[in-house]
Design brief:
By secondary structure, the protein is an all-alpha fold. It has 8 helices and no strands. It is globular, with a radius of gyration of 19 Å.
Length: 182
């Protein structure tokens, strides 16, 4: 079977955008990922922290959505794999940081089990995971929730959050990542 390409932006974008009115129509539900992790924690460790003391079953549709994300990704990976092509400038920039393996969806020198078990990998995962969890709780949602639902609903807080997400991403990419990878 030949390699397939992902959906072009002009098809995938509107499909994602159509989720907002569908979810609003289904009961004023917000689209986002971080709430799924809160529901998982509330289900797995009920009453362990005040933030997780609520009836997580009210968000069970979110967990179904999360399961669908994993199932869809697994199906796409098995049925319609595609190659990721990077711009030559990106490859050169990554080579400058010591990344040389560009097979698969992500560089194995960064996203691989042996890398995770290094002190740098453990710190990046633990500290990064904590900061992402803290940041989404503090911001009242994640990038997908704010950028898709919040902006579609013209929420100023979501606009500020999205600007902050992208500014933080750019700063980390250009200032922090080169230090971590060297």
């Amino acid at each position: 079977m030949g390699r397939m390409h992902p959906l072009p932006w002009y098809i995938a974008g509107p499909l994602i955008g159509l989720m907002v009115p569908v979810l609003l129509r289904l009961g004023n539900k917000d689209f986002g990922i971080s709430s799924n992790f809160r529901h998982l924690c509330a289900a797995a460790a009920p009453g362990s922290a005040e933030f997780f003391r609520y009836d997580w079953r009210d968000g069970a549709w979110n967990l179904t959505f999360l399961a669908g994300l994993f199932a869809g990704a697994a199906l796409a990976w098995r049925v319609a794999p595609f190659d990721v092509s990077l711009a030559p400038a990106t490859i050169e920039a990554l080579r400058g940081l010591g990344i040389t393996d560009f097979t698969g969806l992500a560089p194995r020198q960064v996203f691989d089990w042996p890398m995770l078990l290094t002190p740098t990998g453990l710190v990046a995962m633990v500290v990064g995971g904590f900061l992402v969890g803290f940041g989404t709780a503090w911001a009242g949602g994640c990038t997908s929730g704010h950028a898709i639902t919040g902006l579609a609903d013209w929420q100023l807080a979501s606009l500020l959050a999205v600007i902050g997400f992208f500014a933080g991403g750019l700063l980390c990419t250009h200032l922090l990542l080169p230090v971590v990878l060297r």
